[in-house]
Amino acid sequence: MFTLIGSVIVLLCVCGSFLMEGGSLLLLWHPGEVIIIVGSAFGAFVTSNPIKVVKGSFAAALGLVKGPRYKREDYVDLLKLLYDILVKIRKSGMLAIEADIEQPEKSKMFTDYPRILADHHMIEFITDCLRLIVGGNLDPHELESLLEYELETHHQEAQQPAHAVQRVADALPGFGIVAAVLGIVDTMASIDGADTGTIGRKVGAALVGTFLGILVAYGFIGPIAAAIEHRVHEEGKAFEVVKMALVASVRGYAPPVAVEFARKLLWSDVRPTFADLENHLKGKKKEPQKEAAPA
Predict the structure, then answer these.
(1) Is residue 1 part of a domain?
(2) Which of 191, 161, 212 is CA-nearest to residue 32?
(3) Which of these, 143, 77, 131, 132, lies nearest to 109 by C-alpha position?
(4) Residue 204 has what DSSP assignment?
(5) Is residue 97 one of the residues assigned to a domain?
(6) Nearest of 177, 161, 166, 184 to residue 40 by alpha carbon
């Protein structure tokens, strides 16, 4: 939502100041220039990226209108889920969670947290990690190294749309110059016998091409690329939380301590306090009181 608000502010400031100086927005409306700049940039974008990145870029840009995937309450649920898993392993052994990780959608341990269960990538990451712990016989250092490689691969793949959109932003001023040069060529071709007003309008249209290329690059596409990259970093924290909790557990730490290690990784705006998380975990363990039987 803030991305949309920022784009509106850019548009209002640029157009508003132009109107304040006595300009007319119709002077900036040249469909040919828009087609040259936007069409060429889109064509280059499609040429330089695989279809997976093209689709991912549009999905990531549209996703900026929504809120982040993981909010504070979602991280609380994730930490509680990890706590439940680690407690079950500590009490019943590794093999006790085998049925849960094979069919998480049928496991009460996972279905108690529907928002986490709805994230297919997160559930797949958790279950894959647990399979390694159950059957891999890996020591903590090997497990941590393997999970770091997986997270690095996931992070690089998630950042591909942001990098692709940023390359489009870098190219847009160049396409603006292309539009401007074509406008000047048209002006030079019609200068013989043309009056001053006609030449001025054609030169102005050519300059609009440069203006649009720079404005769209630095006012819209570049910020969108940066926002996508920030969103990738935010959503990657959830996977780091899972890695930290499971590695700490394999190292022999008790479930509350392992979950506390994971909590420390979160950004301050979404990190629950120690007391808050402890209350949530105690509330999870507390059994509902039965009503007294009538006399």
Answers:
(1) no
(2) 212
(3) 77
(4) H
(5) yes
(6) 177
CA distance 220 to 4: 10
- Give the model confidence (pLDDT) of 204-226 as tens digits: 888 998 999 999 999 999 999 99
What value does the CA radius of gyration of the chain take, rounded to a whole number of Å? 28
What lies within 8 Å, CB to CB, of 149 at 6+ separation is: none
Structure token digits, residue 203:
């030169």
| Residue at token pair 């809120």 | 67
The residue type found at 146 is: L
Q: What pLDDT, in 10s, does the model give residues 127-153?
A: 988 888 887 677 788 888 888 898 899
- Are 61 and 224 within 8 A, CB to CB? yes
Distance CA 243, CA 241 (A): 5
Of 28-37, 266-275, 276-285, which gets the smallest average pLDDT? 276-285
Residue 176 lies in a domain: yes
Q: How many domains does the structure of the chain reveal?
A: 1
Unique residue bearing structure tokens 């979404």: 270
Using alpha carbons, list the distances in angstroms from residue 210 to 33, 171, 205, 240: 9, 12, 9, 44
Pick the closest to residue 161 from 31, 282, 61 (CA basis): 61
Q: Which domain holds residue 180?
A: 33-283
**Residue 213 to residues 6, 116, 209, 286: CA-CA distances in angstroms?**
18, 42, 6, 61
Residues 6+ apart with CB under 8 A from 214: 172, 173, 176
Asked if the structure places residue 252 within a domain, the reply is: yes
- Residue 284: band (very low, low, confident or very high) from pLDDT cuts 50, 70, 90: low
